[in-house]
Design brief:
Rossmann fold; 219 residues; alpha/beta; binds zinc ion; three-stranded antiparallel sheet
Length: 219
């Protein structure tokens, strides 16, 4: 089984690539945010624990996040996996690595390499489809609000923009968080220049996935 791990700052295009991989390969999307929202909605023990931390304004501890994610993984079927927003810490990366080893999962790690200026202009240009949730870039994808979505035909809408200050803060946090993770994965990380049209980035990912298949056949 294959797993794709996407690392990238908020706004670097992880969500778009995740959606494409899920659509084309029928992968399961693994997003910490989604899992947490699910647990809270279903009022599970995990959900209640998370709410207690959030009520105190505290971050959910690493081991609780891992337990939630791995518990989710044990409940889903054996399709490929794409990780969007996990791991966020060195501990999570180490736990995920053991998980892959134990289950003989081939993990591929990608880093979307974008500068803050790239993200800034991308967010300003961001439009999305309310029908299929695909996010587009007005200039790169040559789309305007109101025109039909190239994927599903629904009218494209303007996405609520984050303020630049919030964005800058999230970008800085990401840079701090990702360094130890990159150190842990070392040369396993495939760096993908991210400031390009989504389809080009996607082709890069597919190419690497195919190379790795050949690698593992030859070894
Ligand atoms: Zn659409």
């Amino acid at each position: 089984m294959d797993a794709v791990v996407l690392l990238g700052a908020p706004g670097s295009g992880k969500g778009t690539q995740t959606a494409k991989l899920c659509e084309e390969f029928n992968y399961n999307r693994v997003s910490t945010g989604d899992i947490i929202r699910f647990e809270i909605r279903e009022r599970t023990l995990f959900g209640k624990t998370v709410e207690e931390y959030q009520a105190k304004g505290l971050l959910v501890p690493d081991d609780t996040v891992c337990e939630m994610v791995f518990s989710y993984l044990s409940r889903i079927d054996g399709r490929g996996l794409v990780f969007d927003g996990f791991p966020r810490t060195l501990f999570q990366a180490q736990m995920l690595d053991s998980f892959f080893c134990e289950r003989d999962i081939r993990g591929l790690v990608f880093l979307f390499d974008v500068t803050f200026e790239n993200i800034e202009s991308r967010i300003v240009n961001r439009v999305s489809c309310p029908g299929c949730n695909t996010v587009f870039n007005r200039s790169l994808d040559r789309l305007e609000a109101g025109v039909p979505c190239p994927r599903c035909g629904t009218g494209i809408g303007v996405r609520q923009d984050d303020t630049i200050e919030v964005l800058r803060n999230r970008y800085d946090i990401f840079r701090r968080e990702v360094d130890p993770i990159l150190g842990f994965y070392g040369r396993k990380v495939h760096v993908i220049p991210g400031n390009r049209p989504a389809d080009e980035v996607y082709l890069d990912i597919i190419k690497q996935m195919n190379f790795s298949v050949l690698d593992s056949l030859n070894s």
